[in-house]
Amino acid sequence: MNNTQFFIYLFLMAGITYLIRVLPFALITEKIESKRIKSFLYYIPYAVLAAMTIPAVLYATKSMISAALGLLVAVALALKDKSLTFVAVASCLVVFLAELIV
């Protein structure tokens, strides 16, 4: 790939990314009143974060079993309202011990 082709692709990608972010602001002028749409928009960041994080978690260790155990412990502790530090340390310990056993 030469420099000209690279910069064409770069500017095209930047333009499309910019349009995707700007169009909702330009097209939606009034306040959103629908509870369904508000609820949908509220959960989008959590869904995107989960979609990006969970596959990375499952493939971060040598064994998918240890990764799944760490993920299950992290989810269980988070649902019990434990602190972020406690959840991270506990899930890391579970993965470490599972890796020693497996």
Kindly describe this structure.
The chain is mostly helical and 102 residues long. The protein folds into two domains: 31 residues; 60 residues, no CATH class. The chain is 81% helix and 0% strand. The chain contains four helices and no strands. Helix 3 packs antiparallel against helix 4. The chain is flat, with a radius of gyration of 21 Å.
Sum up the structure in keywords.
single chain; 102 residues; mainly alpha; 4 helices
Q: What is the number of helices?
A: 4
What Rg is obtained from the alpha carbons, in whole angstroms? Answer: 21 Å
Structural class by secondary-structure content? mainly alpha
Q: Describe the biggest sheet? A: none
Backbone shape: flat
**Ends: how far apart?**
44 Å
- Helices and strands, in order, run as HHHH
Low-confidence stretches are none
Determine the strand fraction and express it as a percent band.
Answer: under 5%
How many DSSP E strands?
A: 0
Mean pLDDT: 92
Helical percentage: over 70%
The domain count comes to 2
Task: Describe the structure concisely.
The protein is mainly α. It has helices spanning 3-27, 35-58, 64-79, 84-101.
